[in-house]
Amino acid sequence: MKATPSDVWWLGIHSRGRDKRGHQGHAVGSNLMKLLVCAKRVPFTGGKMVLAADSMALETRHLGFTISPHEECGVEEAVRLIEANGGESVVLTLGAPEAVEQLRDAMALGIDRAIHLQTDGAEFDGEATAGAIVDAIREDEAVSGPFDLTFFGNESADSGGFQVGLRVARELGRPCVTGLKGVTIEGGSVRCEQEVDGGRDVYVVPMPAVLTVKEGLNLPRYPSVPGRMRAGRKPVATSTPTRPAARLELVRLVVPPGQGRRAELLGSGPSAAPKVVEMMRKIGVV
């Protein structure tokens, strides 16, 4: 379907130049693009989650960290689009000084430069995060032109707020399409595909736009050794955003109970055979 501004909020990837709509963005007759990926440093998703003594934060002393999985797909998609069209890709994160590790990881995969909104490590809520990102986007666009597309993960792997991409799009006045499993550039527009029961919903929106993507959009590559070496030489612009007064209060964190393990004794010797067969039928083995 062809989306109109009333159908979706805009988020965008911008390319340099002035497009036929009169926006300084995707250039007529030019495939060069300028893309932004917003990524978050999160604990490895397969690790065991342990809370600090006050139940207000995760105990991270023994955890490894990575880019949030949905956002890994955003990084990969931006790299692929620049490989196909030319231009510039940028990765941005809001986080502690250690988050530069994830910026370097993204640049090792092919991202050209990074923006680090450095904090003391305290969590920003969705509204504060979006505000800091909007300020950084506007500052960068004032210098080097607008982003054609801005990628977010559909939700972060830790807080899972589903808010930041939508808030950024609304503040910038750009269309936003969420939960994407397919992204294709079509001239000055982007074709967006969402998986739904029985098929896919398709939206075509003009650039610049903001897109939130999900795992399965693509298969992220592994960084090469030369890529990691180049990443160490790529520029990282660092600034310290002002954290506004929180409008949400964290009461406490709770780790959901696991299903646990349970053993059931079915008997011993030949007398247990009927119960074994019954159990196998129950679980669908026979």
Q: Which helices and strands, and how do they pair?
A:
Blueprint: E1 9-10, E2 13-14, E3 33-38, E4 41-43, E5 65-67, H1 69-85, E6 87-95, H2 100-108, E7 113-118, H3 126-144, E8 148-153, H4 164-172, E9 174-186, E10 189-196, E11 199-206, E12 209-213, H5 225-231, E13 236-239, H6 273-282
Parallel strand pairs: 3-6, 3-8, 6-7, 7-13, 8-12, 9-12
Antiparallel strand pairs: 1-9, 2-8, 4-5, 9-10, 10-11
Helix pairs in contact: 2-5, 3-4
* Radius of gyration over C-alpha positions, nearest whole angstrom: 22 Å
Mean pLDDT: 82
Unreliable residue stretches? 1-29
Helix content: 10-25%
Strand content: 25-35%
Please count the helical segments: 6
Order of helices and strands: EEEEEHEHEHEHEEEEHEH
Structure, described:
Helices cover 25% and strands 26% of the residues. With 286 residues, the protein is an alpha/beta fold. It has one domain: Rossmann fold, CATH 3.40.50.620. A hairpin with a 2-residue loop joins strand 10 and strand 11. Helix 2 packs across helix 5 (225-231). The longest helix is centred in the middle third of the chain and has 19 residues, at 126-144.
TL;DR?
The chain is an alpha/beta fold and 286 residues long.
